[in-house]
Amino acid sequence: MLPDEILQTLNSEYPCRDSQIQQLAALYSQHLPSPPLLVAHGLTATGKTSIIKSYLRLSALPFAVVNSRECITGRHLLERIAAACLDALDEFGDEAVDRRPYARTENLSSLAVNLQRMLEARGKFVLVLDGIDKQREAPPTLMAALGRFGEMIPNLSIILISTLPLTHLIYTPSTPHIHFTPYPRSSLLTILSASPPKIFPTPPSTDQFPDYTPDLALEDDAWLWGRFTSAVYDSLTKHTGRDLDSFRAAAHKLWRPFVEPVVQGTFGTRDFSRLMVNRRVLFQGEEGVLDRIVASESTLADTTSASAAGLGSATPLAAKRRLRTLAHDLPYYTTHLLIAAYLASYNPSRTDVTYFMKHTDKRKNRRRTGAPGGTKSKHRKISRHLLTPSPFGLDRLLAIFRALLDGGVPQVADLYTQIATLTSMRLLIRAGGAGSADVLDPGTKWRVNFSWEYARSLGRTVNIEVGEYLVGGVD
Amino acid sequence: MEHERCYIYTPPEAEERPSKRQRTSDFNPQSQLAERLSTYRKIWAQQEQRIQATLEEADSKTQEKIVNFVSASAPVENAPQTSIPTGLVVAGPSIASHGPFFARLGRSIRDETNSAYVVLTSAESPNLKTLLKNLIKRVTSRIEEDDDDDIRPTASSRHGPKVLDFDLSHVQEWQKKNRTRSIVVALQDSEAFDTRILIELVDLFHCWLDRLPFVLLVGIATSTESFEDRLSGKSIRYLDGQKFDVTQSDVIIEKLFSATVANTDVPVRIGPDLSRRLLDRQKDHVQNVHDFIDGLKYAYMSHFYASYPTVLLKEKVAFKDLSSEAFEAVRNLPSFKRWVEELLDNNQAHDVRKLLESDQYLYQQVTEHIESGQNALNTLSNAATLLTCIRESLQMAPSIRLSNIWTRAAAGELSGAPLLRETLLSVKKASSDKLAPLFASLKELDIDTSPLDQDIFQKELEKLVEDNVGSGPLRSQDDVRNDSLRTTVIAQKVLLSKHKAALSEQDKAYSSLVARFNDGLERYFASAFIDPRTLFLSEILMYDLKSPHTEVFQPKPRFAMERALASPHDYLGCDCCSGKQGGESILSTTQPATAILYQLYLESGTLINVSDLWSAFNAIAGDDEDESKTM
To answer: Which terms are listed as keywords in the entry (chain A) (predicted)?
Structure first.
């Protein structure tokens, strides 16, 4: 393929990356010499890996790609580099390379020797190391050594792909860098408009709408999608995630609920402004940009249907509340233990007397609540339940536990077993006292590992209003 | 003593005989143990079968869903996956039951889909390397069983670069040969995994997703939100899944209870006290299905081990199989004594004499009574199930579970109880649109409701409903909607009077139907809800001893220790330190040194001066020449 053709293909496949592709083409061509080391850097989803891979594939240069994410240790990376180079040579060369001399690549020097032997009397070879800055357990001299490989192996040129420029790690002067800049708004919209999704999952029946041809549908899709994506960008992804991936994900997530009235026939395909007003809830809430493992189609649908019913913005909150319910009930005493642990974590221990002593001095027994009427303190304090939990000792937990319960604790309540179980469920975690193998060592400090909502819903299952015991109150 | 390494301790010789007399007769407490054992095994085998069936049925639905998810998420040709299919299995807080659940799940996944299935636990995955090694070992080991005769073309050291043993290329090689649809990796206890390992694992799987069809199953004890909170946004973007809820353990316990205790075809049951204890333990302390099963099994074991007359429970036990000791044991049962007294009150002294003298006659009576007692208990269970079903289909509040109703019935608390009266009243008030589903659900019940003639009622009801011309359902005369209040003002006093609205013909017919049904129910419940403890041989048919269960499953070590130290007399039973009229904390010289020390410790504050402690101890524990002994 001629260089111009390559550029044309790449530009059509990866729009808005002209300058980077040009630089690549200038540095790596069949006949001109290439730099021994190149750093391609840029934020996530800026097309670094895919553009470099496609370019090398089109340019017919022999090359090998090793993904650092797949390598568990530094040694693993070296072994994989050797294996990948051998595979690539097999693919590009005429006869198979004798693999026996390359059985082991323990360290950087043996990699250098192996590569030297491999590439002896061959043409130019490009080695791409993807995400090299994320390599686990990388040897400290990895980058510097890679930078100097070119001195020993003249026909090898290495491309390092990383998030940030590696200037301080490479001691070789004048290493060329290619910066893959983040896409600006216009480029993002251009890229997304290249493949508009359909408004109608199944095309409307031809009997009813005989003049709605597929061509017309395509035109409508592109028109509405273009408007829609710019609205999504301006309202949501501009503030939450500007990269291509999250923008695309958010747009696709919101598209179905957005065009629902069109599919139902309430609005025409070009009624964009009325559609926007009708579906404004989508752009006000955060559901579209939150990542979830379980696809939350149902909650989106709920909010939209509720908004259609005219309930306004109260529903998203309610939907969120519902998400935070307990999946399974815990036993009675275990629940109390967890509540006690939460209180022990979030109440300072000096207030325990006020809150949990059954009988005490009347003078002392004045609970401080949120903000005493009228006099607002000058310093704004962060509500306690928004801070990280503080560690507490086991004896304090048990004391609060007993204070919470109405009657006594039966002798048969195996509290330690329950604490151990909660630990293995990571609801309680050990904060200090590490080094002792015994989980229930008295010196161990503990912390809770759940949030205020969870504690409150726990309390409601056993009729305890946790907020009443919390210093400073809540809400 | 101090210069010797060891010495022989000679206890002071006691002059008198031990206070407890030795048993001198050659009584064998374990006679016919083998028969009892075999009977136990037979009966428990039936129970175990029921338990297994219940457990499997309980999570079969979830398992089926998961299997469908796995087979649906296998990659399709030419459509690259962008995220790892993930099943979030919310398995509940009973961690002990996760293992068997995932084992069962693995079996059904392997059987029904062409996938490899690997379970990883947190204990064997302290870091990513070990985790991957385990994963590779388990995925690829299956092949070795299948065909190990052909030479595996591994990229071993002789042929080229060595593949490290945590490199997923091993799995890729294996996948190339086997072409499984998907590789299912189950993380059994996701909470206990290190968060960093989880994130790296997700990252790695995502990298390999274009070559290896991974499916991730995550066992979660708390909630999916807390799992999501632990992962970074990037990792979550790599996952795309579905949530599966495993049946809550209290629901399973309820099912187990109705299958094993409140079932109609059980020869031996646990009694109300014990079952209440078992159920309370589930509610208050642990949620563990296996704990419940173990408790039940232990009850059965101790019943057959410790109680000699249980040999009579053997199916078709013949007279010649039994020794006279068995009959002697029966004659010593409290329920036998009650029965005999009852017979004497009825002036059947002749029968009583025969019972006491003739083993043969007693044998006949016992076999008859065992059968009738079992029938009575079956009827009781039947009635409890029926009552629960009625309450459920009338949607009465509060909803009371079968286990609760059964326990109360078995304790003899239900005959004439408010619960029963209330239920019968609502049956009386029920309109025809409620009664029809009630009949339907009664029909579905797997119990014998023949004494109710429910089929006849149902047919009549159907006929009445067919003939009903009015718009609303038929109402009985007790229905509140047929009442109207009339106020009359006479001499400035307001009188309220209730009036029945005039009933139509059909309503009248319906009312009589309901009344008959209600009467039938009332009679049935009255005859069924007896106090089972008044039955002759109830000790054999029902095991209700609390203490063996408590000692094994709910021991109180701390309490026992404290009691032993605080009042050693309770355990030693000697005369010397028996507290004078219950004075438990009286320190005396005769108490063991440890007990004295413990009580001194209790009296002191948080910091103890050793010298003070020693002098106090010395003051109590005695004089100087005794010192060597107390040491």
So the answer is: ATP-binding, DNA replication, Nucleotide-binding, Nucleus
pLDDT tens figures, A214-250: 888 888 889 999 999 999 999 888 888 788 888 988 8
Question: What is the average pLDDT across A300-309?
Answer: 46
Given the DSSP bridges, would you call strands A156-162 and B483-490 parallel, antiparallel or unpaired?
Answer: unpaired
Domain boundary assignment for chain B:
73-145+160-247, 416-528, 557-630
Separation in Å, CA of A120 to nearest CA in chain B: 18
Measure CB to CB from residue A79 to each of B132, B164, B204 and give the nearest one. B164
Set of chain A residues whose Cβ sits within 8 Å of the Cβ of B93: 328, 330, 334, 421, 425
| CA B574 – CA B562 distance, rounded (Å) | 19
End-to-end CA distance of chain B, in Å?
A: 11
* Cβ contact A89:A62 at 8 Å: yes
Quick one: closest CA in B to A73, which residue?
B129
A232 and A283 Cβ atoms separated by less than 8 Å: yes
CATH no. for A3-180:
3.40.50.300
Cβ–Cβ of B159/A67 closer than 8 Å?
no
Residue B91 is encoded by which pair of tokens?
Answer: 């398995």
pLDDT digits (tens, 9 = 90+) for B581-623: 454 446 677 778 888 888 888 888 778 888 988 888 888 876 5
- B160–A102 CB contact, under 8 Å: yes
Gyration radius of chain A's alpha carbons: 31
Min Cα distance B258 → chain A (Å) is 21
Indicate if the pLDDT at residue A83 is higher than 70.
yes
The backbone torsions φ and ψ at residue A243, rounded to the nearest 5 degrees and listed phi first, read -80, 165
Question: What number of other Cβ atoms are within 10 A of residue B409's Cβ?
Answer: 27
SS3 category, B600 = helix
Q: How far is the C-alpha of B176 from the C-alpha of B139, rounded, in Å?
A: 13
Q: Work out whether strand A392-393 and strand A177-180 pair parallel, antiparallel, or are unpaired.
A: unpaired
B92 vs A contacts (CB less than 8 Å)? 327-328
**What pLDDT does B432 receive?**
79
- The answer to whether the bond into B398 is cis (omega within 30° of 0) is yes
Distance CA A219, CA B387 (A): 66
B497 - beta bridge partners? B486
Largest CA distance in chain A: 95
Number of CB pairs < 8 Å for A and B? 147
d(CA A241, CA A4): 35
Amino acid type, B358: S
Q: Are B394 and B424 in contact (CB under 8 A)?
A: no
b/e string for A381-420 if b means 16 or more Cβ within 10 A?
Answer: eeebbeeebbbbbbebbbebbeebbeeeeeebbbbeebbe
Q: What is the pLDDT of residues B558-575, one digit of tens each?
A: 788 888 888 887 777 766
Cα separation of A48 and A178, whole Å? 9
Pairing mode, strands A125-130 and A156-162: parallel
Q: Do B286 and A412 touch (CB under 8 A)?
A: no
What whole-number distance in Å separates Cα of residue A41 and Cα of residue A52?
Answer: 12
Which of the following CATH numbers is that of domain B73-145+160-247: 3.20.20.140, 2.60.300.12, 3.40.50.300, 1.20.1250.20? 3.40.50.300
What mean pLDDT, rounded, does chain A reach? 82
The residue ranges of every structural domain in chain A are 3-180, 185-323, 332-372+382-469
Is A331's Cβ below 8 Å from some Cβ in B?
yes
